[in-house]
Amino acid sequence: MTDNQKAQIITFKDLANKLSLSPSGYEIINIKNNNWHHLRDLINGDLKKGQEVGSDAYIHKSNRFFLRTKALQPDSYLLEVTQESAVPIVPQAFINQRLTKGQVLISKDSNIGEVVYLDKDYPEYMMGAGLISFEIARNPFFVLAMMKDVSFKKQLNSMVPPSTIIKHAKKIFLECKIPFPNTKRVETILFIEEATKAIIRREIEIHNRHQQIDNILMDELNCKQNDFSHYVPKYSEINKDGLRLDTGIYDQEYLEILSYIASYKNGYFNIPLKNIKGGSTPKNRLFGKGTKKWITPSIFGELGFFTADERILCEENNITGDCVIIKNRTLKEKLGRFVGTAVFYDFTKLQLGHHNQGCYRVENYSAEDLKFITLVLNTQIYRKLCGYISLGSKMREIKMNQFTKIPFPKIDSEIKNKLVKYYYNDIEIPASKTVIIKQLEDFDIANHCCPR
């Protein structure tokens, strides 16, 4: 039982009223702070509800998009726009919901209580029925931070009736309590607001740099050329490849991407099998303890950084130097676009670590080359490339021998260094900012806003 949970006796009357035997349906979250406001009292204007368009409106390419609840992720304050979270739809089915900068989107279905902040206008996007948008009237970034905290989702989950498949929060989230500071009210709210704004600014900068890397690589590979000609492969060619009919390696777009890399002016290189290592889960281990970093596919994505700091206590360690950690399998997105995403493991900063079998490890390259391999794998054309060669109907996966066939362009050193700096700019943090970072690490929402 956590500090926020209150022990209680469930009576037959309670069972009769709720008609449920699920323990989660009787959980009570105890906020030990009388200085709170219901979320409904902090919202400006009316709620905007999302609407369904039907799967018959989905198409391959469009300038209008339908947002699913998957676009809201716990490790980001911004929308995560992918081909599966933002589905292209026919323009005739599009409904202009006026999604503008400053609005907050919340999921009321599936991943209930997840929220994001709109950092810009989204005129080409509409919300699905599982999403609601609104504006926060008072202390918007403080309230946003409280809603992003795990305690908000715990509170909402305890209020929503249990379901065997998907939870539906409807408008119950409006009844959630948002705690405010009891002491040093102005300073605490200002501190959290400025910290939240800084996180959002940093996320925007990361996304912008990621887009710049995409643009530079596309221009360098001359991906706008139109002299590619596609042909339908013969049976003899498919048979030579081992009858792989469950793959996208014969798709026109896949072959077109390969042609850009194969015809690159400086040539390309492949990573040999000897430089690619698999992972494992130690038999004797204790998760959440120890000093070694524990790496799994769930803690990094296509932006090339870790989204969580997980630790493991074990005798083994398969990360003993700089390397690239590559996701070799994932349940996320059926097209396989998240298989092959990578992150650079800076051994100087992170020290000994261990990764499981859901990741590959690329080593025996210089730090600059490892960073380059990482940023290339995370670009849009390589996301498509990995998606096409991945296998599996539910969990998409890339085998080690398939990974050795992925070509990497031999970029000129000047452009290569520019790309690496966009991805991984290793700079000294000024002493003044180090103090602020330490304050953020030590800051505890529960102690400042919900004192016991």
Structural description of this entry:
By secondary structure, the protein is an alpha+beta fold. The protein has a domain of 173 residues: DNA methylase specificity domains (Adenine-n6-DNA-methyltransferase TaqI, Chain A, domain 2, Alpha-Beta Complex). The chain is 30% helix and 17% strand. The chain has 13 helices and 20 strands. A four-stranded antiparallel β-sheet has the order 2-8-5-6. It has a four-stranded antiparallel β-sheet with strand order 11-18-14-16, covered by helices on one side. It has a three-stranded mixed β-sheet with strand order 4-3-7, with no helix packed on it. α6 packs across α9. The longest helix is centred in the middle third of the chain and has 36 residues. It is globular.
Write the layout of secondary structure elements.
Elements: H1 12-18, E1 36-38, E2 43-49, E3 65-67, E4 86-88, E5 104-107, E6 115-117, E7 125-127, E8 131-136, H2 140-148, H3 150-159, E9 177-179, H4 185-220, H5 235-240, H6 252-262, E10 268-269, E11 276-278, E12 285-295, E13 311-314, E14 323-327, E15 329-330, E16 342-345, H7 347-350, E17 353-355, E18 359-362, H8 367-377, H9 380-389, E19 396-397, H10 400-403, E20 408-409, H11 413-423, H12 431-442, H13 445-449
Parallel strand pairs: 3-7, 12-17
Antiparallel strand pairs: 1-9, 2-8, 3-4, 5-6, 5-8, 10-20, 11-18, 12-13, 14-16, 14-18, 15-19
